[in-house]
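Re: [help] complex structure
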Amino acid sequence: AQSVAQPEDQVNVAEGNPLTVKCTYSVSGNPYLFWYVQYPNRGLQFLLKYITGDNLVKGSYGFEAEFNKSQTSFHLKKPSALVSDSALYFCAVSGLGSGNTGKLIFGQGTTLQVKP
Amino acid sequence: DGGITQSPKYLFRKEGQNVTLSCEQNLNHDAMYWYRQDPGQGLRLIYYSQIVNDFQKGDIAEGYSVSREKKESFPLTVTSAQKNPTAFYLCASRTGRNTEAFFGQGTRLTVV
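Output below.
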């Protein structure tokens, strides 16, 4: 069965410092991995995705994510955090392989708080 | 403008009533999804559909029903069998398994 884990409910970072939001996944076959951001009472906005190729993926607003197959992880990173990055972040996975039915499964979400 | 539209934005339901949440997309996407969001529990998949006239249960389908009669539309009915329906409901669509999903702005359902 597909699953996603975001082990941290909240991440606190000072503005200008690097940030990391963690994500691990479980899926049969090769994974398709996604990061989204949500602002209060809004829908989710897509940040970036890993489908195949380079393990380091670059996305919107200066975010990037590193795919690590051996650790089944897809951590979200940014070299220098902004106060405006404060939001709720979700990792998601869908799989390719026999038995994969097109499900798109999300983690529990991680609240990122960037302090001035 | 292409996009995905959910309506209404806020919905109030009396206990024992069925209510239907609307989700419409003009992105020509094959797959559509319904999620429920509760504080601290992330997004949980209710139902999804990969093609017209076909849909599958997600992880928390009990007390909900859907239809997919048109490619553009994927309404969700919250039935009286759903014991705790107060939540934020999100609809999404995408082309295929390796593409990102686009989300609507959500419907906040409250039982009164």
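The interface with chain B takes residues 6, 9, 32, 34, 36, 41-46, 49, 51, 90, 92, 94-96, 100-109 of chain A (CB under 8 Å).
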